[in-house]
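Please, structure for the following, as tokens.
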Amino acid sequence: MSKDTKEGEKVANCMRDGIPVPHDVASELIIRRLKMEDANSKGWVLNGFPRTRSEALRLQTAGISPLFFILLDVPYEVAVQRCNGRRYDPITQNVYHMEFCPPPQGMAVERMFEDDDSLAAVVSRWKYFDARKDELIECYEPVFVRIDGNRPLDVVSQEIFEQVDARYVAV
């Protein structure tokens, strides 16, 4: 989505200010995208959406239901630590984390800038999600999977793959 559109500008402003994109705007954009042919033929992954019961119901009303709803469960402090330290490289368009996934040796760190997640924005989004997490779990109870995300990346990744493999075969 382009920042040059009315919707794009609204989304960009919300992200910059660390506030949620209005439900109607987010829902409409995502539903429109998930109804495209490639999403139907190849599948899709949503990260951070739906954020509320209302958004989940909008997806369901549009005939869109996930095969899995995975919650990577981590303590607040860990989530904040993982968000702080991220850097964006405008040339490669990669996102690095100075502690967990640093840029390759010799790469000019000076050209990178902090990801759009200020500490205040991270805290705001965490509180928003935490207050609504249980209602989302209820909406997706049949396909809900809680995974302990406070473990090494390879262990968490392996558990996700195992859950997907086990459930996908059953579908």
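The first helix runs from residue 6 to 17. DSSP finds seven helices and five strands in the chain.
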